[in-house]
Design brief:
33% strand
């Protein structure tokens, strides 16, 4: 029997573009299956709305749902997904394509615009604002037994997925990593090293990819035999040059993360151990 659920989504941005967050609530037969909010770095309000939709659809697919009724207070996004409006924004077009791909995982998806006064939309809005205020535990999916809390965030010239190089070392571009105040003490002694391993959460990657096409390197491979950012748990590992530490700000070179990417961990590169 086909399982049907309602998906309520919301995106919020303070600055437009500015610090942004997303939220979604999945309900089946009046029972909440999943509710989630997370900060996503810097984005416009429309970008946040689309990213909330994409995240919600992927979460619904992971719950083995077959039909989804999407509800949002973003009339623009709803009309674009229904085909009433064309997507003319260069920033929104890649997100629209991702949303369309996510939509294809279901037998049927409908899109309805609701007023902001709708109680469930208000709840989604509250989740997004809690994430913006730092009250949500993590922008990483926190399933039971798996919990990760970011220690900082990336400021990068790479704004969209297509901007970043295939590997950070191929494009020695400078980025900044802002460490959150509660973790500043962990930076002591880091200047003893000139290279660092940076662990990121690639929050804009697809999590439903198990086979990956490698351009110019033969046919498709299992994702675990590749370095693709699209993977079930999109953790990125990049070796960077440490250029400077100024308070809580690290200036690095060779990081391939997008602007607003959460940082999970930092470890020093030890030539004697890591070059074997």
């Amino acid at each position: 029997m086909a399982r049907t659920a309602s998906l309520y989504t919301d995106g919020a941005s303070r600055g437009n573009p500015g610090k942004a967050a997303i939220a979604y609530i999945i309900i089946e037969d009046d029972r909440i299956l999943r509710e989630h909010g997370e900060a996503i770095g810097i984005a416009t309000n429309n970008e946040a709305e689309y990213r909330a939709l994409i995240a919600g659809l992927k979460a619904a697919a992971a719950l083995d749902l077959h039909e989804v009724a999407v509800h949002s207070d973003s009339e623009l996004m709803v009309k674009q997904m229904n085909g009433s409006y064309a997507v003319r924004s260069a920033r929104l077009l890649p997100l629209y394509k991702q949303a369309t791909e996510a939509k294809s995982m279901f037998d049927r998806v409908t899109f309805t615009s609701l007023p902001r006064e709708d109680p469930t939309i208000q709840k989604a809005d509250a989740l997004a604002n809690e994430a913006l205020d730092g009250k949500m535990p993590s922008p990483v999916e926190s399933w039971p037994g798996a919990f990760v809390k970011p220690i900082g965030i990336v400021s990068s010239p790479y704004k969209m997925p297509g901007d970043a190089p295939r590997q950070g070392r191929l494009a020695p571009v400078e980025s900044r990593i802002e460490i959150y105040p509660e973790y500043e003490g962990g930076l002591s002694g880091l200047l003893d090293y000139d290279k660092l391993f940076i662990f990121c959460w690639f929050d804009r990657s697809r999590r439903d990819q198990l086979r990956v096409e490698r351009p110019g390197r033969g046919g498709a491979r299992g994702v675990f035999a590749t370095r693709s950012p699209d993977r079930p748990n999109p953790i990125g590992l990049t070796l960077v040059d440490l250029l400077e530490i100024n308070g809580r700000i690290l200036r690095v070179r060779g990081l391939d993360a997008l602007d607003g990417t959460p940082i999970l961990d930092i470890k020093p590169y030890e030539p004697d151990l890591d070059s074997q």
